[in-house]
Write a structure and sequence with these properties.
about 190 residues; alpha/beta; Rossmann fold; 5-stranded mixed β-sheet; 5 strands
C-alpha cells in the first residue's frame, strides 16, 4: 500500500500570495486545469489508486473530485487533513503579516512548531489532528490511496517524518499546486507509534 499526498490546484489567493488557512477559497480555472492534468497523469501511470481522501475545503474537494471523476473513484471527505488555521493572518500576504502583526510574527517565526498565531493553531496542533487521521487512513486501506490536502499539511507531515526543523519546512518540502508526493508509510510508523 502506498500513500500519495497532493496539494490542491491553484486558487486566486495563491496568485496573490495570500495566506489561505481555513478560509474556504475555490479553485480558479488554472487550478481546475492542473487537477485535470494530474488526473491524466494518475490514470496513465502505475499509481493504482483505489480511494481518494480530501480535506473538506472547496479547493481540495474540487481537486479531488476532478481526479476522482476521471479515475472513476469516489472522493471521501476526511476530517483532520484540512489546512492549518492561521487565524487573523488569513487573507494577508506574509509581507503584510510581518508589517501588521510584527511582534506576533516574530514570536511565531522563532518557534513556529509550538507558537500559535492570533486565533490560529500551531504546527504541533496541526500534527495532533493530522497524525491520527493519516494513521487511520493507512489502517483502512489495503491498496494505494490519494490524499488531496494543503501545502502546510504536506510540509508539516514531511518535517515530522524526516525529523527536520519546522523552521526549514518551506525550504525542504515546498509543494506546488496539484503536485504529488509519495509518503513512505514505514517511515511514518518509525516516527508515529
Amino acid at each position: 500500500m502506498k500513500l500519495y499526498l497532493v496539494r490542491h490546484g491553484e486558487t486566486d489567493w495563491n496568485i496573490a500570495n495570500k495566506i489561505q488557512g481555513q478560509t474556504d477559497t475555490a479553485l480558479n480555472n488554472k487550478g481546475r486545469e492542473q487537477a485535470e492534468a494530474l488526473a491524466v497523469k494518475l490514470a496513465g501511470e502505475d499509481y493504482c489508486i483505489s480511494r481518494i481522501y480530501a480535506s473538506g475545503k472547496k479547493r481540495a474537494e474540487e481537486t479531488a473530485k476532478i481526479i476522482g471523476n476521471m479515475l472513476g473513484i469516489e472522493t471521501v471527505i476526511y476530517p483532520g487533513i484540512e489546512e492549518i488555521a492561521m487565524g487573523k493572518w488569513e487573507g494577508y500576504t506574509w509581507k503584510e503579516v510581518k508589517e501588521t502583526f510584527s511582534e506576533d510574527y516574530r514570536v511565531w517565526h522563532d518557534n513556529r512548531r509550538y507558537q500559535v498565531p492570533p486565533k490560529g493553531e500551531s504546527y504541533q496542533q496541526l500534527l495532533d489532528r493530522l497524525l491520527p487521521a493519516i494513521d487511520d487512513i493507512i489502517k483502512k486501506e489495503k491498496n494505494n490511496a490519494l490524499i488531496v490536502t494543503h501545502s502546510a499539511v504536506i510540509m508539516t507531515l514531511l518535517s515530522y517524518i524526516y525529523d527536520t526543523p519546522f523552521e526549514e519546512m518551506a525550504r525542504n518540502y515546498k509543494t506546488g499546486n496539484a503536485q504529488i508526493v509519495e509518503m513512505d508509510k514505514d517511515l511514518f510508523y518509525k516516527r508515529y507509534q
